[in-house]
Amino acid sequence: MPKTVDSEPWRELPAQVADLIEPELAGITEEILTTIAREVPDYARPLEGRFGRGIRTGVGEALSQFVALIRDPDAGREPGREVYVQLGRGEQRVGRPLDSLLAAYRVGARVAWRRIAAAGRRADLEAEPLTLLAEAIFAYIDELSADSVDGYAAAQAEVEDVRRRRRRELARLLVSESAADPGDLQAAARAAAWALPKRIAAAACAEPDLAGISRRLPPEPLATVLDGVGCVLLGDPDGPGRREALTRAAGKARLVLGPTAQPDGVAASWSLARSLLAADVDRSLGVDGLLAAEDHLSDLVLFESRQLRARIAARRLAPFDQLTPKARARMRETALAHVRHHGNAVAMATELHIHPQTARYRIARLRELLGDQLDDPDARFELELALRGGGRVGPST
User: Fold this and answer.
1) Which domain does 111 fall in, by range?
2) Are 234 and 265 part of one and the same domain?
3) 256 beta partners
4) What values do phi and psi take at 72, rounded to 5?
5) 124 and 249 in one domain?
6) For residue 182, is it within any domain?
């Protein structure tokens, strides 16, 4: 973005103004430091050590650079900008909000303007350059403030990046199939600033859903991404209101909650949650939102044995291959109802929302296709395994 007189009003000041200001710099510096110590509570201490050197350098550099810009506006501020970036970083490192540093800048601008204006009046500086000088001082302080804001934000981002990395490392330790040493876990938890709970449940979600879910959760859970899957580790998951909070956080996204375990059992909780998330990729297990893995163990068994089910389906459901797709779907539906209700036509009719006589007709047709399989307990078991997968499993789909 090109610089303009509006953004850099010192460009319109006569170079001679720099000669007017320069003799005042030492006195202005000392008054600014004294006033900052008096008016900014966080800086109300002797300007000694690293802290004192930083503030003194900042004030001195600011005044010298301002004079240099009046003499040569095209020289730019880049050579001295890093001083104010580092001041912002320093505030973040010591855990202070940026308010105190920005207040110090405002104090500096006020003192500098008062002293420079007095020098200008003594030198009979005309009203127009005097007014422009005021604009230049406050525009310049705005730039210093922006530099420090940038430094503070960069340091904060670095801290957050370290925090995220340490939390990811802790999560990996907890979900690792190789049990972590308790001492290592405690050290990793301290580094991640996460109080290690006595009871933990792991929850899994799609990676793109993790940010939204995390925003709706209370601050205590540990949320990260592991191997492309969103991972939420929740302490005391069976406590009052915890399940409701998870349900609200999930919203319409699929969030699968593993069973509660002690820290050395989180790996099993994560494995179940992640496996069920993969099994429910087509949302066949119901409405969106929270799923408890322990309520769907049979679904998980069927999913993880899908290759075997495909072979069973190829053998047990081969008679359906001769049917049209619509008739095949109807017979699959009828066969599953038959094995579920042991051939009871009334119960089947209720489940399928058809008339009992229609159910009896379908049973007769089913017997034509499957024959003795409907009377053999082992065959019925294999039929149910094959049919439980619905349209996802087997060549008869």
Assistant:
1) 9-159
2) yes
3) 204, 291
4) -145, 85
5) no
6) no
Do residue 125 and residue 248 come from a single domain? no
Q: Are residues 101 and 134 in the same domain?
A: yes
Query: Which pTM was predicted?
Result: 0.57
Q: What is the CATH number of the domain that holds 293?
A: 3.30.70
Question: Total domain count for the chain?
Answer: 3
**Site of tokens 């503070």:** 152
Residues 13 and 149 occupy one common structural domain? yes
Last residue of a domain, one of 303, 324, 351: 303
The conformational region for residue 195 under phi > 0 = left, psi -120 to 50 = alpha, else beta, is: beta
Do 109 and 87 share a domain, yes or no?
yes
Which pLDDT tens digits describe the chain residue by residue (397 residues)? 445 555 788 888 888 888 888 998 999 999 999 999 899 888 877 666 677 778 888 898 899 999 988 898 887 777 678 889 989 998 888 888 899 999 999 999 999 999 999 988 888 888 888 889 899 999 999 999 999 999 999 998 888 888 889 999 999 999 988 877 888 888 998 888 888 899 999 999 999 999 999 999 887 899 999 999 999 999 988 888 888 889 999 998 999 999 999 998 999 999 999 988 988 776 777 667 898 888 888 777 777 777 777 788 888 888 988 899 999 889 989 888 898 888 899 999 999 999 989 989 998 999 988 888 888 888 888 888 788 765 433 333 3
255-257/229-235 β-pairing: unpaired
Together in a domain, 145 and 90: yes
